Every structure is written in C-alpha cells, then in structure tokens.
C-alpha cells in the first residue's frame, strides 16, 4: 500500500524536476517490488488487492518499463517536443492503472482497470504520434478492444449473480462448479485474446505500434499485451476451464498464427512493423502454453511475457534511435550501420539473438518450456514448432544483417555516435535478460493447487 499511496502523491505533485522524480521513483519501486517475488503460495491480501507470483512478476515489469519509457522519451519529448509535463503525467497514470489491474481481486474493478488502461495509451498515440494515420490506428485499437470487452462485462455480471460475489478468491475456493461450454469461453476469454492479441484478431497491433511514439510502443509491447495474458491465466485458474473440449481450435489458430506472422516478418521493410508482428507470434506461443494446461506451459508463458516485454521494448528503442538520426524506419535505407556506430551494432546483435530465443538469455528457457508443453499436448505440433524456430531465427538475422551490413548511405551524419543516455537505456533493457538466467525459478514459479 505504501507504493500505491506514493504513486498517488506523485500524480498530484508539482515540481520543476517532476520528470526526473517520476523516473527515479519508477526505478526505486521496481527494486522494492522484487520482494513480492518471494511471497507465499497463497499470496498477499489487502482488502481488494491481491498479489501472488503471477502478478508480482508483471508488477516488476510494469515499473521497470515505465521508468525506461521516461528515459527513452527524454530527448524526443522533453527537449524537442511539447507538453513534457502532460506526457510524464499520462505515462505515470498509465503505470498506476496497470499496477492496480495486476493487484485487483474484485472482478468489476478488474474489468474497469482493464478498460481504462486504453485511455492513456490512446492519448500517447494521438498526442505524440508521428504521422496523420495515428487517428486511424487509435480508432482500430479502441474498436477492437472495447467491442471484445463488452461480452466480458456481461459474463462477469452473470457469474457474480450466480455466486453472489465479485471476488475472484471466492470463486477459486468455493465448491460452486460452472459448466464452461463454448459460449462461456468466448464470452470470458475473447477480450483477453484480442488484447494479447491472437492471430486473426491482431490487426490493431501493427497499426498502433507504427503510429505510436517510442513510449507508446514500449508500453504496448512491454506491458499492455501482458494484460491479456494475465487475464487468461487468472480466469483459467479461477473459473476452471479445464473441461473445455474444443481448446484445440484456439491452439491451432495460435500455432498457425505463429508461422504466418514469422513469414510476414521475413517480408517486412518497416522496422517497427517487423518487431510488432514478431510480438504476435510470441504471444501466440504464450496462449498455446496456457491452453495446454501443463504447469511447464504456464510457467514458460509467464517467463515469456517477462522476457518478451524487455526484449521487444529494447528492439523498439533501438529502432527509435535509428529513426531519430535518419528520419526513416525503412530497412532499405538503414544499411551499413556497423561502419557508422559499431558499439550500438553489438546491442542490435544481442537483442536479435534474444528475440529468436538463443542463449544466454531467459527467452531460451521460456521457449523450451513452452515447446515442451506444446509437444506434451500433441506430438503433431512438433512440425509447427520446428518451422517457428527456423523462421524466428531467419527474420531476426535478416533484421540484423540488413541494418548493420552493406554500404553506408551518403546522407548519414558523420557525427553519428550515441550519447550516454542511449547506451544506458539499452543496457537497462539487456541487464535483466542476462541476470535472471542465473535464477530463472525466481521469476517463473507458479503453484497450481
């Protein structure tokens, strides 16, 4: 509760150095939230708030990514753009709403914060986006997510009327058994599948990523996609969807979507679009791990959400650093960066390796756990897994080779070297991906009982 009240105080505080204060508070809160990773099996209750292993990992990720959002926007918003006070307020409010969503045990408030998180994100896209198409991207995002969330509200009201409670802990420990058929699955999980997003309902995500500023892309890839994953794992756990006999359809769409988005990534020419479509493929594997109902699939999915949040956010930061210097995101215009800024090309290589799930990053552990759960679900999925691994390595190597190798364009600035804040930003993304490999179980412990 101390963190919640501190964040409320920072929302209403006025100071000349408010940007820096909010940045340092986010960094300090992320270190403080490490203690929640060692909570007991049954978690911590405080009125409507509840923290267990699943929410603790995502709370830690939210604080860390929000601090890095302010650091990434320091040059583009605070010095060159307008509305720096409003920008930091919107980013801070978005983090506050997301943290409350991850800690909420009341179903109505759970739904409320799930929906309200769209408003600050829409403000970021419309207020600080790059191109006029940001209006269309914001409309796509709102229509997709709001339309899919209205059945969820209806399902929450119906279930609470049957059980006379809105508390998720009451559903989990009560003997009241729901007959969860196809209609229930669509009503309760469709909103989260759109938010992740699942393939075939993912069209809003690349548009939102391309038109959003760097902070919008970071929060979308790093945290907002995890709202859907958290909602799925919480509802599967609380409402016992174990008896659903048609989950093979969802599994098939996710796996096929992973292959298709990997093929789309190979043919992309826009750096942001390539990273956005790779997010769809990774989140498809997360859905497959959750639907498989194996413990290693759940733990691998949570670890994938954490590692993908850092890796994808770091790739968007690297793409934004190129865009700020060249004013283009086209792969055809960014060749030869190895000759211009060789130290940054090392970070490009490390993040591309992390995104394809290679050692020594925790992405490797998460993908191995997800592949094991998918193979145990059906041995026939091994063919799709092999294709996804090959295509994932292919488009990440294409991204690195095209951007870094080749001849430099004549319009490159000779003074292309990065400053210290850029290296700090990239290192802070990379550091958790490397450090948590020494104790992966610290992040991925999920107890199902």
Automatic annotation (TrEMBL):
The chain crosses the membrane at residues 21-39, 45-74, 86-104, 110-130, 142-162, 182-205, 217-237, 249-267, 274-295, 301-323, 382-403, 423-443. It is a multi-pass membrane protein. It is an enzyme of class 7 (translocase). Core subunit of the mitochondrial membrane respiratory chain NADH dehydrogenase (Complex I) which catalyzes electron transfer from NADH through the respiratory chain, using ubiquinone as an electron acceptor. Essential for the catalytic activity and assembly of complex I. Its EC number is 7.1.1.2. Residues 4-100 form the NADH:ubiquinone oxidoreductase chain 4 N-terminal domain. PANTHER family: NADH-UBIQUINONE OXIDOREDUCTASE CHAIN 4. Residues 105-390 form the NADH:quinone oxidoreductase/Mrp antiporter transmembrane domain. It is found in: Mitochondrion membrane. GO terms for molecular function: NADH dehydrogenase (ubiquinone) activity; NADH dehydrogenase activity; ubiquinone binding. This is NADH-ubiquinone oxidoreductase chain 4. GO terms for biological process: ATP synthesis coupled electron transport; electron transport coupled proton transport. The keyword Chaperone does not apply. InterPro entries: NADH4_N, NADH_UbQ_OxRdtase, ND/Mrp_TM. Keywords: Electron transport, Membrane, Mitochondrion, NAD, Respiratory chain, Translocase, Transmembrane, Transmembrane helix, Transport, Ubiquinone.
